[in-house]
Amino acid sequence: AQSVTQLDSQVPVFEEAPVELRCNYSSSVSVYLFWYVQYPNQGLQLLLKYLSGSTLVKGINGFEAEFNKSQTSFHLRKPSVHISDTAEYFCAVSDMYSGGGADGLTFGKGTHLIIQP
Amino acid sequence: NAGVMQNPRHLVRRRGQEARLRCSPMKGHSHVYWYRQLPEEGLKFMVYLQKENIIDESGMPKERFSAEFPKEGPSILRIQQVVRGDSAAYFCASSPTGRGEQFFGPGTRLTVL
């Protein structure tokens, strides 16, 4: 079984400041890792994903994340945030060997990023 | 290429009624997943289906909930005899391979009065 922990339920940041949203996971097997963003009353949009290869992953809207296998982390970063980044951010994992994502994605509880002017 | 489509976007039901939620995956995607999002919580996996087959329903409540993905037409999540605790946002996602990235629909927000 897998689990995902997003340590911060809410992160307030001033506009143009950098931000890091933390994500730790646990799994007995290798995993794929994802960050999704959810704007109010909307579905989830994929920000970035780690499937294999380089541990530094670049996504849309200037976001990036780094996979750290030894620390079982996949923290999301952005060097300078904008008001439009205000949203809920979800970290998710899936089992790489489940033969088809049979367990679906396991999500963290989300981090609400609040950008202050 | 249209994204994942869900309808209705909002659904209001009284206790004891049935709710039917529909999901049309992206073109070429034969893997469909349903998730439920309760207020202030992340998404919880419910069921994974391929055409005409339920692959994994480990996240589905044992009673009143069922899902199907027929050969033709959308996937349906059916909730019988709804209760107030069923009020939530239900999201559908599809995948071309059943592995890796999933593409999400806009969700159906179910309110049970």
Please provide a written account of the structure.
The complex is a heterodimer of chains A (117) and B (113). Chain A is mainly β and 117 residues long. Chain A is 0% helix and 51% strand. Chain A has strands at residues 3-5, 10-14, 19-21, 24-26, 31-38, 44-50, 56-58, 64-68, 73-78, 87-95, 106-107, 111-116. In chain A, the strands form three sheets. In chain A, strands 2, 5, 6, 10, 11 and 12 form a six-stranded mixed sheet that branches. Chain A has a four-stranded antiparallel sheet with strand order 3-9-8-7, with no helix packed on it. The N and C termini of chain A lie far apart (41 Å). The relative contact order of chain A is 0.32. By secondary structure, chain B is mainly β. Chain B is built from no helices and eleven strands. In chain B, the strands form two sheets. In chain B, strands 2, 4, 5, 6, 9, 10 and 11 form a seven-stranded mixed sheet that branches. Chain B has a four-stranded antiparallel sheet with strand order 1-3-8-7, with no helix packed on it. Chain B is globular and about 40 Å long. The model of chain B has no long low-confidence stretch (mean pLDDT 92). Chain A binds chain B through residues 4, 32, 34, 36, 41-46, 49, 51, 90, 94, 96, 98, 100-110, and chain B through 4, 31, 33, 35, 40-46, 48, 55-56, 58-59, 91, 93, 95, 97-107, 109.
What letter string, H or E per element, gives the SSE order of chain A? EEEEEEEEEEEE
Helix share of residues of chain A? under 10%
State the assembly state of the protein chains: heterodimer
Radius of gyration of chain B: 13 Å
**Number of discrete helical segments of chain A:** 0
* Amount of beta strand of chain B: over 45%
Radius of gyration of chain A: 14 Å
Question: Overall mean pLDDT score of chain B?
Answer: 92
Low-confidence stretches of chain B: none
What proportion of the residues of chain A form beta strands (DSSP E)?
over 45%
What structural class results from the helix and strand content of chain A? mainly beta
Helix share of residues of chain B? under 10%
Biggest β-sheet strands, sense, barrel of chain A: 6 strands, mixed
* Estimated structural class of chain B: mainly beta
